[in-house]
Write a structure and sequence with these properties.
By secondary structure, the protein is an alpha+beta fold. It is built from 3 helices and 17 strands. Strand 16 (197-203) and strand 17 form a beta hairpin. The radius of gyration is 40 Å and the shape is elongated.
């Protein structure tokens, strides 16, 4: 009897318009798939199914008795509440997909609802790297142009944003945001010694942030004794050219000396052979 009722309800569901809802969950957490029961709708039967990637029965409710022992990937991780909402825990990455609930009341009327579950990994802690731009002729004196790069390893569908301490979120493209807000370009001056910037990463179910004081990198880049690559080139290139020139001159001098020695040796040998012995 229960099997016949189940088949009849599933046939009715195919003829009903679906009501869609979207639900998000986090790996390792729990999610509640809510069955929306219309006012005055006295439920007699309810059927929860997983529709993707394969169609499986997850839980059923017949005449006041719940059954959740159906063979599916959710076996042992589901609970059917008294309000007919389905709870899944702990969530796994592969749980993302579509679910449907079919409700039938005591008068034989039916209602169908489809829910799309998306399961996300919690975002990892971001890493911020500070890159100091090379000073140019147009850059104001005593300023430091900085690129802040924010990276989250092994994460997808992550949203990046930046915030300066005691200021609003930096969301204006004219403020120097690049690569989907992963890179922020700023110009600092002596009054920004304690200015803190935060990179905030998030997805629909989690968020994390890391802070950095970029002026410290500007100071380290200009400490006494620290040389930029331009300074190194200005010293290293002339010295290298002098050493190269000295080597060429040395080789040329040795070649001249060798040539003179060979000519002298040949001249002496010829003179010896042409001398006439005395009688």
């Amino acid at each position: 009897m229960a099997r016949w009722i189940l088949q009849s309800l599933l046939l009715w569901e195919a003829l009903l318009p679906a009501v869609w809802a979207q639900v998000q969950g986090r790996v390792g957490g729990s999610v509640l798939l809510e069955a929306e029961v219309p006012p005055g709708f006295r439920v007699r039967e309810a059927i929860w199914r997983s529709l993707w990637p394969s169609e499986k029965l997850v839980a059923t409710f017949f005449h006041g008795a719940a059954e959740i022992l159906y063979d599916s990937r959710f076996l042992g991780r589901t609970q059917l509440h008294s309000n007919l909402s389905l709870e899944i825990r702990p969530l796994e990455q592969g749980d993302s997909g579509n679910f449907s609930v079919l409700l039938a009341d005591i008068r034989g009327q039916t209602k169908s609802q489809t829910l799309q579950l998306t399961v996300y990994e919690a975002v990892s802690r971001p890493t911020v790297q500070v890159f100091i731009a090379v000073s140019g002729g147009t850059q104001p004196p005593r300023t430091c142009q900085v690129f802040l790069s924010c990276v989250v390893p092994n994460s997808s569908e992550v949203t990046y944003s930046w915030q300066r301490k005691d200021a609003a979120e930096l969301g204006n493209p004219q403020q120097g945001l690049f690569t989907d807000n992963q890179v922020l370009r700023i110009t600092l001056g002596p009054g920004d010694e304690d200015t803190v910037y935060s990179c905030i990463v998030s997805n629909p179910v989690s968020w994390d942030a890391v802070t950095v004081t970029p002026w410290e990198s500007c100071i380290q880049n200009t400490e006494p004794g620290e040389k930029s690559y331009k300074d190194i080139l200005l010293v290293a290139v002339p010295i290298s050219l002098l050493l190269l020139l000295a080597g060429i001159l040395s080789i040329w001098h040795c070649a001249l000396c060798s040539g003179k020695k060979r000519r002298n040796s040949t001249s002496n040998h010829v003179t010896t052979e042409t001398e006439t012995p005395s009688v």
